[in-house]
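Hi R.,

As promised, here are both runs. First protein below:
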Amino acid sequence: MGFKEEYAKKLVSADEAVKIIKSGDWVDYGWCNNTVDALDKALAKRTDELKDVKVRGGILMKMPAIFEREDAGEHFCWNSWHMSGIERKIVSMGCGYYSPIRYSELPRYYREHIEPDDVAMFQVSPMDEHGFFSFGPNASHLMAMCETAKKVIVEVNKNMPRCLGGFESEIHISKVDFVVEGDNPPVGELGGGGEPTEVDKTVAKLIVNEIPNGACLQLGIGGMPNAVGSLIAESDLKDLGVHTEMYVDAFVDIAKAGKITGAHKNIDRFRQTYAFGAGTKKMYDYINDNPELMSAPVDYTNDARVIAQIDNFISINNAVDIDLYGQVNAETAGLKQISGAGGQMDFVMGAYLSKGGKSFICLSSTFAKKDGTLESRIRPTLANGSAVTDTRPTVEYIVTEYGMINLKGLSMWQRAEGLIGIAHPDFRDELIKEAEKMNIWRKSNKK
């Protein structure tokens, strides 16, 4: 039987495909922008027939149809590998929970630890002449998910970019149980956090000055990493490489400015390597069928041992806040989960292990509360319930608009002095008083 004949034999409607889902099942919805669309709507029609269907996924870009009803929690439970704003709403509805992970380990969770999916379903690009469907910009953990799932359903979307890879970036028709041809919705877009502020630009300048020619970049999502990307695109830097968890629009700008060649990468030379990508149509058009890009599973891209092989590795990520011990929180607001651990600590550790590598955690010195008053992001201790995303021994450079400090090798009084020195001036005296109470402030410290 040829691939086209096998495709035709497995082609069913979305309504027909979701009939295999039963109460109590574990169902995977895919990841980020390849989360199912037509299959989700079809499953929502069956809500009254189902109870306790546990759904896995992450970084939702729109509200799933199964959670549109007020009583959705009686039928479906969302289990998120990484939170988005939409998932925070699902949690507030009482229908979902965050699953703490070290993102680099996620494929192993599927293969060794968690209860296998009864059904895994996700969007893919159209089948090629060799019988393969691309996972789009989401190699991430999807092959591990497919290998362990009892049933696999693919939803074909003509708008999904075909992303080339080294391995585990596509699935063959022979490993698929059902094929559904969806409504071809546009691929979900994610902006870069808006136009950079003056604070973003100030922080970006401090970091860009530390980047050498030939460096390999990892950028997180958000205003500050986006500002760094914009400044790199305008700089005189050359022969840069990319090895990142998330591919974002900033990389496209840097590449189109002629700054990326990958010529000095110790591994995967000339390739921009990533685990998943989310951005605007500009980015999706750029990565489509582009041999310069390499889509790869997250247990490769985020493995600190792999990162360490690349000289002059530069890791740039955001944080919510940091305490005077050097503990970084990049995922919660107190007890409220707002993001996820992701791979930040993997890149912090991997960059430090890289010859000439550097890891930067950047944040504005303050944020405005709902009443308009400012609060310091550099705190005496993290708020009750806050997650420690990066432990204090692993953190290297911390950057705010007031400066930069390398925490490696510093004692507690040196850390306190340095961090207070890059805090907003309005909060420094208060932080010194708290540091004195915590017995981490010496009389010889600079006021």
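And here is the second one, sequence first, then its structure tokens:
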Amino acid sequence: MLEASPGARLETPEGGIALLRLDRPAHLNALTDDTVAEIARLLDKVGADPKVRVLVVTGAGRGFCAGFDLGLAADAPGSTELGETPAWMIRQESFASLVTRLRALRQPVIAAVNGPANGAGLGLALAAEIRIAGRSASFNAAFVRVGMSSCDIGVSWILPRCVGMSRAFEIMLTGRMVDAAEAERIGLVSETVDDERLLPRALEIARSIVANSAFGVWMTKRGAWANVESASLQAAIELENRTQILARTTGELAKAAEALVSRRKHRGKDGHEPARD
């Protein structure tokens, strides 16, 4: 499947894995209103497809996403009819909704960050459960450098949870660039690979997720996000307990136990550990 669109396209590189590619390479995949609307539509499509188990997000060309296209900063759609402030609020909420849409997906999201991830691009990368970076990747909270706030599309909530408060404040207040090596060192990404290995590595991780129970993966994503906001350890454990009992009803645990018993019986007969898949 290959679905072209204004600034984004959806691909299926292999079974169970969808690839959302931001596709304005001449503009480092900067976001326009139309592109944001199209990404939202494609995310809805992914969320509604039970065959998709993992979503990988990356950028076409030499950039992940340069954030909001500043060529559109003079006006927002609907300003004449609604007034400037209401129109800009609608635009802001539309851009920010991409983060909550990514979080709400059943499928885990892997951001394969190639080149710059600036401003809203940083926000999109942070919305993924797993981030890996090519060596050309760089990150910054760009809006503070153009007279706006770095508190944008979830960055002020997610970034401190990734790198700690002091580092997050320093990155957000200065707007400086964080290169791939530093991003890995401070925990902004889980690993850095050569640029040519970026997408293959993202697909490797995606395959290892697809190999697990779909329901178990969904509950892991949902439970982990919920417990990031949990008020206490006890509240987190209460949610975990109920999630485990719910997951047991799928029958996957019973199948795994049967397979283990079968392997042990086989090992007992010939004295050797059977080969594992």
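A quick note on the second one: The two ends are 29 Å apart (CA to CA). Let me know what you think.

Best,
J.
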